[in-house]
């Protein structure tokens, strides 16, 4: 009987819905009627509150940096609300993406973590990741202030999904140092706003309303006309802004 | 009694070691005496056969591209040999890293997947990831030919952990196209050799024998003297080779 009562309560929790149950449950797991085995992907997605995820991502950032922050913000929120299988994910592994991958400055950890979460939770992740990356490199970010923010942070435009470029352009925009406490705080805000954006995208896709807003820029399409599939110099791949690194094309580039 | 016999056999399997047990087991799970809960990280690591992992990574690449290939090569091998918790990991999520993250050309997927696996399985992952990235950007790769290889592939030196740079430099070295069947095959070989290297590093760390061979290059240290922590222009972070993108420093750079 005790077992049946527990099952009943678990199913009732799901029926009541996430928002009503969450404050009562905290980290406690609820029975979730998921069909996926833990080893499968994607896992089922239920719409989340973007602001709650942003706040959780900022707090997680303080524990494990940028990639962990965004991933734990999203998947940790599902674990807190729904239990298994979300609470079986070894979240701490995502700390490797800090500083663009073990401090190498490659893919921004807030994007790596958000993309990983999207891939775990969406049946069609690529359009959402494209949108997230396109937004990241063109928007003035961070665009969300966590409730427990320590410093005030001015935004910048990264023009790239790379940590190295993103940080340097923020330093240029603010005059602040790359290893300063303010830059550290800035990346915590970035974790919050990227996790929030990722959840907004997941929510819109789950509602059947997702529409892409960040097509490949015309200037990148122009470069790809020669350098991508079928071009006269088919010698590259990628969707990043070309001019951010290829900033002196006058030298050594065939006239076009 | 049956339960005790199973436990005995499970422990015996671990005692005999991976290589002896693997051919008998295939995909079947063994009881593994792990203390970690599925939600914790790292998960316990047991030394793996680098060549078996390389072959599995190549096969997995054909199913899900570069990041998935390396991650499934390593964690899939553990799942095949040991069962839980390795077989609970939602491997398919790692497909997002293909082509440097949804084809954006950022962090090479073979590195993103290998680093993720190292972070899942090592108590001290950063030195191994540093070594892996340092090796990747300076070695002639691929340096391993999968048994089921479809084409013969010439190697190149990437000089960068970025997919975009790695692919373009391989195209330059070979005269082949970036979207060709040979380049696709080349990245499968890369998945094999990066997963193999990652497992060699994990094995050496597990044996207490790991030693770093790829320190930060002197020319990067020189740049960081001014641009990193405490420098006169502390405006960046990262460990990538500076000159690969900053190839015309004569223009617009203060004389040093």
TrEMBL record, chains A, B:
It comes from the Bacteria. Keywords: Iron, Iron-sulfur, Metal-binding. The keyword Metal-binding applies. The keyword Coiled coil does not apply. Pfam families: C_GCAxxG_C_C. This is Cytochrome C chain A. The lineage of its organism: Bacteria, Pseudomonadati, Thermodesulfobacteriota, Desulfuromonadia, Geobacterales.
């Amino acid at each position: 009987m005790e077992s049946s009562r527990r099952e009943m309560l678990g199913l009732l929790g799901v029926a009541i819905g996430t928002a009503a149950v969450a404050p009562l449950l905290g980290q406690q797991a609820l029975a979730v009627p998921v069909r996926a085995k833990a080893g499968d992907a994607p896992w089922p997605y239920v719409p989340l509150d973007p602001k709650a995820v942003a706040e959780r991502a900022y707090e997680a950032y303080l524990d494990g940096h940028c990639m962990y922050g965004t991933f734990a913000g999203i998947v940790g929120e599902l674990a807190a609300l729904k239990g298994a299988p979300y609470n079986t994910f070894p979240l701490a592994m995502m700390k490797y993406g800090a500083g663009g991958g073990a401090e190498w400055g490659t893919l921004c950890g807030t994007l790596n973590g958000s993309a990983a979460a999207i891939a775990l939770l969406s049946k069609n992740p690529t359009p959402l990741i494209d949108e997230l990356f396109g937004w990241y490199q063109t928007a003035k970010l961070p665009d969300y202030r966590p409730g427990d923010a320590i410093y005030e942070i001015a935004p910048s435009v990264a023009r790239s999904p790379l940590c190295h470029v993103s940080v340097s352009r923020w330093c240029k925009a603010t005059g602040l140092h790359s290893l300063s406490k303010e830059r550290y705080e800035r990346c915590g805000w970035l974790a919050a706003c990227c996790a929030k954006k990722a959840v907004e995208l997941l929510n819109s896709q789950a509602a059947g309303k997702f529409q892409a807003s960040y097509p490949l820029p015309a200037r990148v399409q122009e470069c790809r006309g020669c350098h991508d599939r079928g071009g006269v110099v088919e010698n590259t791949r990628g969707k990043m802004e070309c001019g951010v690194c290829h900033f002196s094309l006058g030298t050594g580039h065939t006239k076009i």
